[in-house]
Every structure is written in C-alpha cells, then in structure tokens.
Amino acid sequence: MNEKNSRSAPVEEWPLSSSVREALAITLRGCDELLIESEFARKLARSEKTGKPLRIKLGLDPTAPDLHLGHTVVLNKMRQLQDLGHVVIFLIGDFTSMIGDPSGRNVTRPPLTREQVKENAMTYFSQASLVLDPERTEIRYNSEWSDELGARGMIQLASQYTLARIMERDDFAKRFRNGNPISVHELLYPLMQGYDSVALKSDMELGGTDQKFNLLVGRELQRQYGQEPQCILTMPLLEGLDGVEKMSKSKGNYVGITEPGNVMFGKLMSISDEMMWRYYDLLSFRSIDEIERLKEEVRNGRNPRDVKVAFCQEIVTRFHSKADADAALEDFMARSRGGIPDDIPSVSLNGAPLGIGQVLKQAGLCASTSEALRLVDQGGVRVDSSTVSDRGLKLGAGTFVVQVGKRKFAKVTLS
C-alpha cells in the first residue's frame, strides 16, 4: 500500500510553537517511521491551541500472558506521548486475537479460544502498567464493537476494501505465490484492526514495523467513514539477546519484564557492546544528549562495561526497585568472580547415585537430559565450583551446588 499516493483529508493550518516542535522531536525519537509527519505536527498544534488532547492508540493481541522488553519499545513511546498530555488507549484485542494475526507468517496462525484470551488479558495491563501510568490510560477491548457488528456489519465493513489492496501485504503475496493456503478469516484481520481505529476515533496508532500495513488500513477506513485519518508511528523491532533475531520467548532470546532483577541484569549484561547502544536508544529513558555523551566517553576510552552496568541498573530499577538493582549488581559481580549467589533454589532428589544428566533435568536446570549432556561436553556444567567433563558422572548422597552456565544455580540434596 503506497500511502504517498493516497489522498489525505485536509487538516487545518496551525502555527508550530516551540513546545509543539519539542513534542514532535520526542515523538520521532527512536521511531522507524511517522506517517505523515506534517499531519501529525498540525494535529499537535491544534491540540495545543484547543486544549483537546490527541487520542493515541496501541492495540495488542493477548496471544501470550507475559510481556518482554521488546514489547516495551512501543509502550515506552506511549508513555512519552502520555507525559505530553495526550490520551493513550491501551486496546486489548480480545476479538481479533481469536482470528489470529497473520503478520509475518507463512502459515495460518491457530486462533485462540475466548478462555485463552481472557486468561492472557488478565495479566497484560498489570504488566503494561509498569511502563504506562494506569491512572491516565484508557483500557478498551475491541469485542465492545466487534461483537456488535454481526454478519451484516461484517459484510458492510468488507465492502470498504478491495481484495487487491489486501493482497499487497507481503506475507499474503508470498504465501499466494508459493501456493501456501490463506484462510478467508485471515483476510479479515487487517479490516478488523482498522475498524478499531474508526470505533476509537484515534488520532494516531502505534505499532511495530511489521504492523505498518494494518495501521494503514485503519487510516483508509477512517477516510471511508468520514473521519480525519490517523497518523501512524512505527517502532523498530528490538533484537533479542543474540543480536540477530527479534526478541521472542519462543526463540529464548528475551528478557521478561516480570523476571527477577538479578536474572534481568545478567541477561542484559550478555548483550554485545555494539548492541548495547541499540538497547539504549530504544529502552533507556535517558535523553538523547545523555546517550551521546556516554558514546563519546566510550570513544575516549571509558570501559563500555561500566556503561552497560548503568543501563542494566536503569532497567532493573524501572521494573523492580533501586535496591533490587543494587543487589543484582552485587550478585552479578559475585558470579563474575566465580562466587555463588545467596538466593539459589534448593531441590531435593531421590535415587542416589544419580547421573549428572538426570540431576540437571530434575533440578530444572535443563529441559532434557540430552541438553544437559551437551552442556557437559561444552564445559558449561559445574558441581561445587568444579567443571564437569565426564557425562557419565553420578552423584551420590549428599548436598551439592550445581551450576549451568553463568546464571543458573541450584543447591541439590540427593538421597
């Protein structure tokens, strides 16, 4: 879909004050794209002149119950807009999640049941409130208007958009060319997400870069329904701890926002020095000038590890507390010196003597014995601070401190 070739509804001309220019700069920080920047500047100016805040929408389908730092890239931007005085709408896609968002997929995504959606949605907003100000956030569920559409309303909505436009989506086009099945209900997803913007009369919608097509559909549908079209702000997809794939629980390269502080700290310290700046740009609340000063200090010889520690403490403090951040740093330093944390879990196992593979699996340090033995071969397993090199090792009765990698520990009592 080529937005540049589509007509925009006329927007009143308003002078851009210094505060509006500052608000625009805050909006643009770290974003991938703002469509259309001149329109949004005029919306900001109109809001300042009339005293009427803009309505800023973010929709999330509760496909999983937990949020990670990748989700907070967009939430951080919502908080910035919230602090500028605008109304932010946290839209839980309880209806659309039962369709299943096909974005970026080459197979049909299995829809969730209403029970699964309800269960996941229960934790969504409480976790998002670690970033957003819950007192200034409007929470909505798109079943409010989607359930009421009915068959007649759905057909009328579908008449507002053409199949040719829908098939401009890269993932649909690729699947069609490759002969992969596309279910009709998937074609309805962009329309339903777009209709959310109509129902909420949104002035701007936020999303990841993979959501751009769906956000543009909302803009077009608003025109069809006689509304001023929303502006669109897309945020980059945060790479995970591996620095390659986008952050995802399924890929295991994530940092959950409800994970213990020391776990968050340790995971973030594992990112590369180069990737650290990407995390600063997308996750830190420090000003652009502050981050530039840190970059200059590193260029002039400051150890990047110190800068990374400061970032880790900022993130842990945000989602836990300053005390937790300080404790996480102490814990990390102790582990770096080969020390053992004070708060490791205790596990009691039966069956001594027990093979090291079974010990690691039953203690919850590895998902399977095959993974455990592979880690032994790689030198990643320690018992009482000594590296295990024999995959045939059996532990007799007694208590042992078992370690996998740098961050996983357990005090195992065998009987």
Task: Describe what you observe in this structure.
The protein is globular and about 75 Å long. The strands form 3 sheets. A 6-stranded mixed β-sheet has the order 1-6-5-2-3-4, with helices on both faces. Strands 7-13-12-9-10 form a 5-stranded mixed β-sheet. By secondary structure, it is α/β, with parallel strands linked by helices. It starts with 17 loop residues before the first helix and ends with a strand. This is Tyrosine--tRNA ligase. It comes from Oxalobacter paraformigenes. Its main location: cytoplasm. It catalyses: tRNA(Tyr) + L-tyrosine + ATP = L-tyrosyl-tRNA(Tyr) + AMP + diphosphate + H(+).
Would you kindly provide a brief summary of this structure?
It is found in: Cytoplasm. The protein has helices at residues 18-28, 37-50, 69-83, 114-128, 143-158, 163-166, 170-177, 184-200, 212-224, 261-269, 273-283, 288-299, 304-319, 322-336, 356-362, 369-377, and strands at 33-35, 55-60, 87-92, 137-141, 204-208, 231-235, 346-349, 354-355, 381-383, 386-387, 394-395, 398-404, 408-414.
Fold blueprint:
Blueprint: H1 18-28, E1 33-35, H2 37-50, E2 55-60, H3 69-83, E3 87-92, H4 114-128, E4 137-141, H5 143-158, H6 163-166, H7 170-177, H8 184-200, E5 204-208, H9 212-224, E6 231-235, H10 261-269, H11 273-283, H12 288-299, H13 304-319, H14 322-336, E7 346-349, E8 354-355, H15 356-362, H16 369-377, E9 381-383, E10 386-387, E11 394-395, E12 398-404, E13 408-414
Parallel strand pairs: 2-3, 2-5, 3-4, 5-6, 7-13
Antiparallel strand pairs: 1-6, 8-11, 9-10, 9-12, 12-13
Helix pairs in contact: 1-2, 5-8, 8-9, 10-13, 10-14, 11-13, 13-14, 15-16
